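WARN retry 2 of 3 for item q-0093 after timeout on previous attempt; input resubmitted unchanged.
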Amino acid sequence: MAQQSLERMAARRGGIAIRGIRQSDVETCGRIAYAAHSTVAAAHNVPSEHPSVEFSLALIGNKIKDTNAVGFVAERDGAIVGSIFLNIFPGTPVAVVGPLTVDSAAEGTGAGRWLMQAALDEAAARGVERVRLVQSPSHLRSLALYIKAGFALREPLVLCSGALPRDVIAGCTVRAATIADVGSCDQLCSAMHGFARNSELVAEIQRGAARVVERGGRITGYSTGLGFRGYAVAETNDDLKALIAGAPAIAGPGFFVPVRNSELLRWLLQSGLTARWPAALMTMGSYQEPGGAVLPSIAF
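OK item q-0093 returned
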């Protein structure tokens, strides 16, 4: 887009210009992301989602390299004040927003709103009607932004961490997932969510992280790994408990648990796990309430 057009558009946006993210933006965007998450975490007395500036720099750098992610930055007076990514999942009719971060000095300028609009415009251009995100912990400003943008809060979540329970769940057998299991897992996920998450599942099978649970000689649940980026679907809480108890370890700072699943959450807390911070699954577009027991990832 011509510089003159960018300037006219920025004027309509209160001085905020939006452009595609570049490799040269990693340092600035990473440091803004780290500072923004640290500020929110400190204000609400929860652990930061970004534990170090190195983590933030690596995250932004990896997102820019990811062919299934599209990034944008907001500039004000020529300086970057925030960034956002829209994440695509091949074969899945859902796009995911995140991370979205804005410099605290630019709050109230509309930078977050215009970044969100850029991501939603990208989703629309790709024909993706369903958009998801997991809201960062206790951040009322971001909650207001997402609600005004058209998102609905679907599921309160809590991030749990600690030593995993090793209970033996009667009738359930957990093993490593194989490519031969993909068809059964896709059917299960489609029954729960209305679509399969095939690309994520196949990638985690190839990494050796995915697990399935069998009961009565058939697959009744699976996970792509227990952790920040893994998700799970299961027919019953017992199937989900078996997947959790059978996981080798938790990857990253913890895993998300739907707060409304009080039976599962009670079992985890009574087993000694700790609730670290709250979050919320939010959606735009058509949404199917899961019919069984699920664990969402940081994406959805």
